[in-house]
Amino acid sequence: MIHIPPKISCDTAPFWAACNERTLQLRQCEACGHIYWPAAPFCPACASANVKWQKLTGEGTVFSYVVFRQAFDARLQEAIPYVVAVIRLREGPKIVSNILCCPPEKIFIDMPVRVAWSEEGIQRVPQFVPCGTGAKA
Amino acid sequence: MQYSRLKNKYAIAGIGYTPQGKVPGRTAASFHAQACINAAKDAGVALQEVDGLLLYRHFPPVGEDIETTAFTVAEQLGIQPAILGQEHYCTRNGLPQAIGLLESGLCNYVLISYGDNARSGKRSFVKEVIGEQATDELAAYGDMSTLAKYAMLARRAEYEFGTGAHVWKEIALAQRAWAQLNPIAQMHGKPLTDEQYENERMVVEPFRLLDATPVSDGGRAILLTSAKNAHRLKQPPVYISGIGFANRPESPYRHVPGDPYSAAAVAAKQAFQMAGVTHKDIDACELYDCFTYTVESLLVDYGFCKANESGAFITRGRIGPGGALPVNTSGGMLSEAYFMGMTAICEAAMQLMGRAGERQLGERTGTKAPKTIVCGDNGGVFQSHCTLILSGGIQV
Q: Distance from A3 to chain B by nearest Cα, in Å?
């Protein structure tokens, strides 16, 4: 639905490479256990450099969401209206993503969601669908 | 309080305006220069006496403009200040720098300046894509614009505290009512009705277009000096009685509305403590209002009302003309002009100097004559904050 590839840095490249394998992974600190996004080489909770990539369940709830009624880029015109949300993942961290397969007026805060993977484009992007719909992005 | 020795030690001695609103055919540098000339003239200080020039600098230049730097502005002013700064982080960072320069004795007169051709040059606040290329990860989700970040937190506040368009409408209408008393406001002569607000188109739900500030051409400057110097200058000094700073630099998506340790809450607490005042002493608020919800959030963070009581507290009757707690009396950025932190600070200073014309607080608008006004300058998406408590009409 959205055809703007992300800017990938050397810090975030392994995250995006895993996305192409339909795997959601974030940085986790081996010293204190903190899981965080976006990826960075030092733990923002304890400053440890001992951080690894941790696979996540891809399950979470909607922390907040907005509905775009205006396209801020010509490539988004067809996607309107679309939903951008902050997802609170089961493992704790909050990430930005989209909610698909659900009309905007049916979305609610704390709604359970699970990750789905975009098909199109060069870079696969993690998006979320309501749990139990069985829908594919 | 470690800042208390600075209380009332420094003052705003002059304010510089320029033509504002839609002013085509001007560079940002020319607005800076004009605002600085007018601020120095307002104070009765020769430009050559200015030994510190700190300017807010937008990136990149827009429209037909070329790059604005502190050099180009100083060159246009024909001055050679000892200290030149081109600070990307707005007035809230210019203020502590200016106070530090004055306190250390490195400077005697510091100008803080803002200028932009944002309206004619169509400045965009969509930073996630430049040209065709994404600048970070967010564009991949279509998460574009600063507006969407504020809207995301506003939505969460709706859920947690029961706020919403019914509160934001009060802010939009109250500030628009103030603008009707301000002949230089962009929205002067354009009163706003409930129906107009309610029928306004949604941009990024839950925000309507009227929840967002338009942008402006123009500039503003203030001249800061010691209270001692300010006393012998042209205008009644406006003292810096309290100031507080705080940063919460993490992504706004990790912020939570109503956080008692938000940047605004921490900065405000510091400023109130330094000034030795309570909320009852505050005669008006001049608060950063990039969006209507920002005003609500700051009133909550500053402790004027509880998050779950904002609907009852924030009414046009209270914050509009004649109200018990006037807020953004020039019309603010939403209805006067978008000069970021300078819109609020210049208005507070004008009110305390008694120079606000038809909108002057006191008898003219059916309120108390102001002695103490709190200003809030917010940056990023609630990530950085400076609270300023200004006082007028006092002997120090």
A: 7
Task: Compute the distance between CA of residue A11 and CA of residue A8 in angstroms, rounded to an integer.
Answer: 8
Coil vs helix vs strand at B9: coil
Separation in Å, CA of A35 to nearest CA in chain B: 13
Phi first, then psi: what are they for A62, rounded to 5°?
-80, 120
> According to the model, what pLDDT value does residue A136 have?
42
A89 and A39, same structural domain? no
Task: Give the per-residue SS3 of chain A.
Answer: CCCCCCCCCCCCHHHHHHHHCCCCEEEEECCCCCEECCCCCCCCCCCCCCEEEEECCCEEEEEEEEEECCCCCHHHHHHCCEEEEEEEECCCCEEEEEECCCCHHHCCCCCEEEEEECCCCCCCCEEEEECCCCCCC
Exposure of A69 by Cβ count < 10 A (0-12 exposed, 13-18 middle, 19+ buried)? middle
CB contact under 8 A, B253 and A86: yes
pLDDT tens, position by position, B96-152: 999 999 999 999 999 999 999 999 999 998 989 988 899 999 999 999 999 999 999
Task: Give the containing element (helix H, strand E) for B11.
Answer: strand B10-17
Length of chain A: 137
Alpha helices in chain B (DSSP H): 28-43, 70-77, 90-104, 146-161, 165-179, 194-199, 227-231, 263-275, 292-301, 310-313, 316-319, 332-335, 341-353
Which burial class, exposed, middle or buried, applies to B384 when counting CB atoms under 10 A from its CB (0-12, 13-18, 19+)?
A: buried
Give pLDDT tens digits for B158-175: 999 999 999 999 999 999
Q: Which chain A residue has the Cα nearest residue B137?
A: A6
Q: Write out chain A residues lying below 8 Å of B202, CB-based.
A: 67, 69
Domain limits at B11? 4-123+216-225
Residue A1 maps to a domain = no
Q: In whole angstroms, give the CA distance from residue B387 to residue B243.
A: 6
DSSP B249: -
B349 CA to chain A: closest CA distance, Å? 37
Structural domain contains residue A106? yes
Decide if A26 is inside a domain. Answer: yes
Strand arrangement, sheet containing A35-36: A35-36, A25-29, A51-55
Could you tell me the residue range of the domain that residue A133 belongs to?
57-137
Q: Are residues A79 and A137 in the same domain?
A: yes
Interchain proximity A69–B202, CB inside 8 Å: yes
